[in-house]
Amino acid sequence: MNQSVNHGALEKAQEEFFSVASHKLRSPLTTIGGYASVLLQENLGTLNEKQKEYLQEIINANKRMLTIVNELLNASRIDVDDFSINPDLIDLKKIINEIINNLTLQIKTNKIHLNTIIDSDLPLLKVDEQLMKIVIQNVLINAVTYTSKTDSIKVVVKKDATDVLIQISDTGIGIPAAQQSQIFTKFYRADNAVAKQSESAGLGLYIVKAVLVASGGKIWFDSEENKGSNFSMTLPLTGMKKREGSNRLT
Ligand code: ADP
User: Fold this and answer.
1) pTM of the predicted model as reported, rounded to 2 decimal places
2) Which residues lie closer than 8 Å to 31 by C-beta, 6 or more apart?
3) 204 CB under 6 A from ligand 1?
4) Residue 221 forms beta bridges with which residues?
5) Which of 100, 113, 197, 192 is nearest to 151 (CA)?
6) Where are the beta strands (DSSP E) in 108-148?
7) What would the pLDDT profile of 8-50 be if each residue is shown by its tens digit?
8) Which residue has a Cα nearest atom 23 of ligand 1?
């Protein structure tokens, strides 16, 4: 047997492992989160402050774990190259505002200055709404995660003759120059990011890039350590390319 066959078989086994592990983990995690939420709503009896605090910790940890499991599942679907893209006409501004709303608590708690500038004549775009959310959410959550108190984040959406350009920039920790070339690699995290936030899996940008490239788009960035990062993404104004596949990314 030659080496490439071995390598291929190993990769396939690894992808299957991720896929099965993620499916089997997702359902009990969802159950745990569901029951913890019911308890916290005090439908089954009142709780003291300490009990509420601990339940909230369980819910938060459960959410973090579900995010990682979903990312593993998405990455394995990307690796076997079997995810669908179903474009539909959508309002990008609405999606961005929804994502920002979901991050309001973190933005307020960290006193982050958020500035959003969206071209007023942006047309409806033919994109897969779920995939668009995955893309923007990942890059925006990174901007929030890798900034410190009173830093700024700017979201700009504009169009030129052929493309829509989405830029998300921040004045956060930045990416060390020597590690920038690996940022889109699966599981890769720069040292300063690990020090700031130890729990992420390093899969977000791997997924974002795969989705954009499969859709006919692009992503790139420039960044300076301790100064900030600027992520730019484009999609053709004609929309995402439709793609058949037996799986949806979640
Ligand atoms: P993670 O789960 O670690 O955020 P990602 O794949 O989304 O994984 O990002 C990979 C790495 O790229 C991060 O761990 C971090 O080192 C770097 N990175 C991404 N976005 C930013 C940002 N806005 N500021 C600083 N570093 C970033």
Assistant:
1) 0.91
2) none
3) yes
4) 231
5) 113
6) 113-118, 125-127
7) 787 778 777 777 888 889 999 999 999 999 999 999 999 999 9
8) 143
